[in-house]
Amino acid sequence: MQALFNQLFDYNFYCNKKLIEQCTGMEKVPEKCIVLFGHILNAHHIWNHRIVGKPYEFGAWQEHSVDDWGDIHYENQRTSFEIITNTDDFTKRIDYENNEGRMFANELKDILFHIINHSTHHRGQMLSDFRTNGLEPEPLDYIFYKR
């Protein structure tokens, strides 16, 4: 399972890095994309911090400067890889409090998969918004990554 999660998070890193590069090169990044990518970064950060039991620093929908995306993204990925590397039980239950103050518990493997799936979902929304704004998005399909 460790190898699978390493591969999925590597794919996630690749996709986010491509979007950061594309947005950094734009004269003006569409506002919806700024909001969505900030949310991708923040949610990843929040889930990492829930897993390791630390308070998180960002709100779920907090916006960040495009210039800061790379550093936040790198730290998110570094932390996730560290979690994966140091885990010997992916069925371990993680207790956490959601943004409304309710307590929940999920298995680590489900939280890690959620981070990937959540990021993919919002990247798809970004690519759609690119097209709406007359921009051609980078191809981010998993199969292209694997080629």
Description:
It is a single chain. The chain has helices at 2-24, 31-52, 66-85, 108-132, 142-146, and strands spanning 93-97, 103-107. The two termini are 22 Å apart. A two-stranded antiparallel sheet has the order 1-2. The model has no long low-confidence stretch (mean pLDDT 97). 65% of the residues lie in helices and 7% in strands. It has 147 residues and is mainly α. The protein has a single domain, classed as dinb family like domain (Four Helix Bundle (Hemerythrin (Met), subunit A)), CATH 1.20.120.
Structure at a glance:
The protein is mainly alpha-helical and 147 residues long. It is 65% helix and 7% strand. A two-stranded antiparallel ribbon has the order 1-2.
Index terms:
single chain; 147 residues; mainly alpha; Four Helix Bundle (Hemerythrin (Met), subunit A); two-stranded antiparallel ribbon; 5 helices; 7% strand; globular
Strand % is 5-15%
Task: Please summarize the sheet with the most strands.
Answer: 2 strands, antiparallel
- Give the structural class: mainly alpha
Q: Please write the CATH class name.
A: Mainly Alpha
CATH topology: Four Helix Bundle (Hemerythrin (Met), subunit A)
The parts where pLDDT drops under 50 for at least 5 residues are none
Instruction: Tally the structural domains.
Output: 1
Shape: globular
Instruction: Please work out how many helical segments DSSP would assign.
Output: 5
The tally of strands reads: 2
CATH architecture: Up-down Bundle
Rg over CA atoms, rounded to whole Å, is: 15 Å
The CATH superfamily appears as dinb family like domain
* pLDDT averaged over residues: 97
Strand numbers in spatial order across the main sheet: 1-2
Terminal CA distance: 22 Å
- What proportion of the residues is helical, as a percent range? 55-70%
H/E element string?
A: HHHEEHH
Assembly of the depicted chains: single chain
